[in-house]
Model the fold of this input.
Amino acid sequence: MTELPRSTRPRTAPIVPERSVAGRTLMLLIAIMTFLSAVTLGGVVLVQKSAIAWSSDVGREVTIQIKPVAGEVMESNLRLAVSLAESTPGVANAHALSLEESQNLLKPWLGAGLDLSTLEIPRLVAVQLSDPVDADIGRLQNDLKSIKGASLETHAAWRQQLNTMAGAVVVSGLLVLALIVMATVLAIIFATRGAMASNREIVDVLHFIGASNSFIAGEFQGRFLLIGFRGGIVGGLAAIAFFIAIALFAGNIGPTDAGAELGTLFGRFAIGWDGVVGIIAVIPVIAAMTAITSRLTVRRYLAQISS
Amino acid sequence: MIEFANVGLRYAQGPEILRDLSFRIDPGSFHFLTGPSGSGKTSLLKLLLLSLKPTRGNVTMFGEDVTSLDHDRLLLMRRHIGIVFQEFRLLDHLTTFENVALPLRVLGQPENQYRANVEELLEWVGLGERMDAHPALLSGGEKQRAAIARAVIGRPDILLADEPTGNLDPELSVRLVTLFAELNRTGTTIILATHELALLDSFEFPRMVLEDGALVFHD
Done:
């Protein structure tokens, strides 16, 4: 074999060969773990955003319900309720739901085409609050005592239930995230120990030519950092693609009633730019975690074989 | 340069492999280390390479008692010692050039700084045309010359060799020991372990003979 000219000589090969670390399997595993982490994170963001948006929407509205009472004129009570509401501090406007609007509200339970004009049903006044914090709900509640059959629904119980549910989903998501991270760390530890054992000859040679433990750990860390980055990018991009697909799917069924109901429940199914940034941030975190875990494992392994 | 005083070595709770070794190796000397298989040659070389600590006695190298040195100081001292093994121990995925340059790379030197030195050394050991070959493509003699080049590229003060001719034919063995002798003339202290009597007889270097864990010097 003749010597290659300097310019054509290949660049210096890495001390820890790429193929010696079970790179492809580990990369796939890290990609899956990143995907699961990102989807969990995205799911948590989605639920939290929807809960905040819903809670805020619900919190901006209170409802006055007036039950039919014998001897009372419903339309006049409705007008009185609207006027009392509008005179309450913190109220933006109040609007009595027409019979038709009330019918629409009952449609999911009673079906379409039902004539409610012959039925005595409770009527509602939707009250929009301009300032949910400072609105004088107590005063309105007190004023409504003058209308027979009137009561005020602030949706507080709903909001509390919603917040509790959203909180439970967020905590569960974070717990799942923690378990995924732990499983990833364990997988990296096993992969690193396997790589160290199969590269024992390289480690021994490096030791006897005077390489420090930190140099050897750095060589392995570099290899694992690369695997972590590749796996993280694959998993992160797959997660972003997953959320885009979900958003498109939800958008496609949007015009239907089912789509509208889903939209009401989950918002736009979009994790938004902050969610995408969160998922992208997962990638370097996973890569760094891979590198740090492998470095610590290598240092411990080297300390064991040096002693 | 190297001084052993009443050194003993045992592995775990086993019997003493080396007993009461007391000797001194002067700078620039060349010694053969010989003895029958299992006499403790490799264990003595490991003590000299600082990869083992004696279970008793004192080892002084470069004026320091190595038995009390911490890991970092031992590492720095080990960089003054080169080692050549019978089984070469070249890294298969690296070229001859990269294998030989490894000790300098480990020290953090950039390639443009060591390239000329490595190429010059490879020319000197007769591997100028084999720089880009991987170990799998080298003959036994070429591998051993590459291993020697790797051991001396960092200009060590001491060069240890553990049966470096064990896998070579007699003619090549003599040529290789001649290479060690040339290195010795440049000032490197050499301890070469071998049990090949014919090879020992071909050179007039002093011999350290190990038998049953005890050491006898023959000038």
In short: The interface with chain B takes residues 1-4, 6, 9, 12-13, 15, 17, 20, 201-202, 204-213, 215, 306 of chain A (CB under 8 Å). Chain A has nine helices and four strands.
